Amino acid sequence: MRIWLGGLMLVILLMVPFPAFAGVPLDTVKTNVNGVLDVLRDPKLQGEAGKKVKEQRIAAAAEKLFDFVELSKRTLGLNWNKFTPDQRKEFVELFKTILKDAYVEKITAYTNEQVNFTKEVPLSEDTVEVQSVVVTKGGQVPIYYRVLKKEKEWKVYDVVIEGVSLISNYRTQFREILGNNPPEKLLETLRKKVGKG
Amino acid sequence: MRYCEGTPYSKRVCLLGLTACLIILLFLFLGLPPLHAASDSPDPDTGAGVNVPVAGKQVEEAGSIPVATAEKPSDEYGNVTEEEVVGSEELRIADPIEPWNRAMYHVNDKFYFWLLKPTAKGYKYVVPEAVRGLVSNFYQNLEAPVRIVNNFLQGKPGYAGLELARFLINSTVGVGGLRDCATECFGINGRDADFGQTLGTYGLGFGFYVVWPILGPSSPRDTVGWMGDWLLRPQSYLSSKWISPESVGLYAHETVNYMSFHLGDYEAIKGAAIDPYIAMRDAYVQYRKSLIER
Asked: Is A176 part of the contact surface with chain B (CB cutoff 8 Å)?
C-alpha cells in the first residue's frame, strides 16, 4: 500500500513540470500563423488593392514572428564574425528583403489550405521545434518552425519544409560565395538580387 | 531494358539482366566516398579585421544577474560563438561532375518552362480539380507495392501492414484507388517509402550528386533505388518491355497531374535562391536525408 502511494506521488510529481513548459512556443507560432491565415481569407481584401494590403499585413506578421538577426547569424554561422557591425546590419536587412520578396507573394496565393499544429519537440535548453502540417488538395506538407526563447518571447529562427531547413539551405549557398571572397562580395550579390526584385 | 526491345528474350531473362545491372551499379558505387557530414570549419586568420568587443561583453555579463541571457539583449549584432550558431550538422554531398550537373540543371530548367509548365497549365485548365484529385489518388494507390515492400525492407512491418490495408481498402471501397478512403473514412495513415530510402537505412551514402536530364536531382544510390521502384510499379508490367510507350506515357501523365497542383513551387525556390543550382542540390540532400530519418 505504501509502495502504491509512493508510486502515485511520484507519478503526480512527474506530471507537474511538463504542462508548465509545453504549449507556449506552439501557441505563439499558432497565433501568428492563424493571424496570417485570417488575413488571407478576409473576403474584404480582394483584387489588386486587397492584395497590397494583404502583403503589408503578412510582412508585419512576419516581423513579429521571426527573429531576423538570429536567423542571419545562424545562416552565416561563424562567417558572421568576419562581417563588420555595419556589414552585419546591412546583411540582415538585405536577407530579410530577399525572404519577403520570395515568400510573401507566394503566401498570398494560398486560400483554402488547412494548417494543423501537431506538436512541439524541445531541441535544446532554449530552442523548440513547433511542428505543423499544411493540408492541400495535392497532399500534405510538413512545416516545422524552430523557435528560440529571447527575452521571454519565442521567435522563429528557422523554418523546415519537407525536411529542408531554410537556414541550412542558404548557409550552403553563402558558404560557396564566402569560401574565396570577402563579405563585401556577398553583400554585393544580395544588393543586386534585391535591386532586381 | 533497351537491349531487350525487339529481341525474342522473355521478360524473365530481361529481369535477370536488369538485376545484374543493379548489382553492378551497387558495387560500382559502394567504393565511392559516402556523404560526409562536416562542420563549417572557420578560418582562424580571416576574422582578423573585425574589432571584437570582448571587453564590452564582459562588462555586460557582470552587470546583469541571470547568466544564461547575459550577452544577448544589448548587443544583438555582436560576435557569435560556435555553439550558438552551429546547431545542426552540415550536410554536404560530393559533386565531382558539377559541370555536367550544372548543364543538366539548365536543360531541366528550360524543360520545365518550355514544356512541362505549359502542358501542366493547359491540363489544369481543361481537367477540373476534383478529377485531378482522383487521378492523384489513383497513381498513389498504384504505388502501394513500392511502399509495402520498402517499409518491410526498412524493418517497419507495422507500416507495411498499414500500407497493405490502405491498398486493399482503396482498391475496393475506394473504387480502384480513385478515392483515398483509407485516410478519409478510416483515418489510416501510411508511410512513404522507396528503395533509395531503404538503401539509405542500410547505411549506404548518396555517393555523389547527379542531375539527370528530365528526371532531375539524384545520386547513384537513388538512381538504383528509382530503378528498383520502377520494377515494383504495376504500370511497368503493361507491356512485355520494361520501358514501353505505355509505362513512360503513364509516368508522364502522373508527372503532369502532380505538377498541376504544384505550379509555382519551382519558381518560388528559384526566386528565393542566390544560386539556384546549389539551392536545389542542398534541398535534395536535406529532403532525402530527412526521409531516411523519418
From this structure: yes
